[in-house]
Specification:
Strand order of the largest sheet: 7-6-5-3-4-9-8-10-11-12
Strand content: 25-35%
Helix content: 10-25%
Mean pLDDT: 92
Distance between the termini: 51 Å
Amino acid sequence: MPNASSGGLPGCAVLTRQLGGNPAGTAAHMTSWLLIEQPGPWPADALEQTLAPVFAPGRLDGPRAAGLRPLLIRRPGKHQRDPGAPRTVYLASGVPGNRWLERLEVADLADLASLDLGALAASIPGHGERVDGPLFLVCTHGTKDLCCAVLGRPLAGVLGENHPGRAWEVSHVGGDRWAGNLLVVPDGFLHGQLDPGEAALVAKAALGGQVQPDQLRGRTSAVSAWTQYAEIAVRKHLGLRGLDAALGVAERPVESEDGEARVVTVQGLDHLYEVTVHRNVASAVGTSRCSGVIAPSAYTTRTIKALVTA
């Protein structure tokens, strides 16, 4: 693993591993994407700088609340900007049963102002040329957090060599402490704590229409972190790999003597399963160089019970 430590303190991603942090149930909520190619180096506020001249203030608020996630992408490797080159833009939906990926080529980012963002947020296609996925998006936004660059770039390099045209570096996807982070679009699964070999396994599974459950942070369209965790628990319990093989359909809080707990109902294969999930208070705490104090709470599975259906 590359070294993400300096100045005597480890980076947040290294420290989270040392503290035993589990990435399951930590994916940011995303149901659709607007992926804009932005070559060259990215400052910490690169996304905001890129979007501000294109979309009027407040125009993205509603679509974002509905699940749309704008992100910047760039090709792996040296980050050089050619002002006259066309930009590749991907639009995608990751909703189970309605996954799709489309592509645009634009000469000027101002051309994006005419996009129907409401339709995109509602996972309605028809914005560009339909293309076959998946795309492999590796967070390398080092000015947001150095761990993403140090641990993400080796992943992007390997995936770029193995899957040219499918692998992209991506701006901040949330959860620097889980670097290296890999988002698969339009499948809608976010993976964390990956090294290049593990990223290659994720990509191989995705190209086969499957999900690699190890180090899976969660399905981004799931309604909550509890549901993400329960789906992963059912996947591992039953050995399920299909994109929609484990889908949370309901959750409810239950009493617990120590911490929080919920029962999540998951559709897995031909059965419903009730997963009792407990959120533990962090038992280990440390201080990182880039994110200060880290105290990774974790979910645990208390029970998985198959429901008898008529």
